[in-house]
Amino acid sequence: MKIDDSLNEYKRALKVFATFCYHTTMTKWFLSIYGFGGKPKFLNFSSSQVSHCFPCTGNPGSPEVYGLQGIMDVYAYEMKNADLSGPILFAPLITETMKIAQQSKLEGSHVYTILLILTDGEIHDMENTINCLIQSAKLPLSIIIVDIGNADFEKMEILDGDNGLENSDGAKAERDLV
After folding, report:
1. Where are the alpha helices (DSSP H) in the chain?
2. Are 141 and 115 in contact, with CB atoms under 8 Å apart?
3. Per-residue pLDDT tens for 109-122?
4. Which of 34, 46, 48, 128 could make an SS bond with 41 (beta carbons 3.0 to 4.6 A apart)?
5. Which residues pair with 54 in a beta bridge?
6. Distance separating alpha carbons of residues 147 and 129, to the nearest angstrom
């Protein structure tokens, strides 16, 4: 697959992921797109506080987009309408995704949820994130973390859970979902 070199690292990662998903699903999907670690300043949704899970569409009632063009359009819209800032917390984003996966499970749906997190490697809520991942392992949910940039990604290796994921209380994830 040829990826346009003029795209920034985030857009390239989004394009690769979206293209892969598009070719491996039968339903040609809708996606909920959320940002984290930013102050949203959309027309219908804004905050002076850093939000750790906000709809990139700017509409809390409709975070969905359709296909690759929808992803790229909402990414550009979000970049114009949110001031990115720290701290970077993953747990609120994972919690929101867990709600989506839990709803699918309760409905008996065969929908499997995939959360894609594009990050620079920073994370400031490691224990909360690990706890969310342990809970998520019981849901039809997987998480893909794509490291962007040159930061230290040691914490992402821990979240990967290839050698098991355990919190400070000794609770373990039932499976590797990252």
Report:
1. 9-24, 67-80, 91-106, 126-136, 154-160
2. yes
3. 888 888 888 887 67
4. 46
5. 35
6. 16
Helix 67-80 vs helix 9-24: crossing angle, to nearest 10 = 150
Q: Dump pLDDT digits (tens) for 33-91.
A: 888 889 999 988 899 999 999 998 999 888 888 877 888 898 889 989 999 888 889 99
Cβ atoms within 10 Å of 51's Cβ, excluding its own: 20
Regarding pTM above 0.85, the answer is: no
**Residue 78 to residue 45: CA distance in whole angstroms:** 12
The string of pLDDT tens digits covering residues 125-134 is 999 999 999 9
**165 contacts 173 by C-beta, under 8 angstroms:** yes
Q: Write the burial class of residue 140 (CB in 10 Å: 0-12 exposed, 13-18 middle, 19+ buried).
A: middle
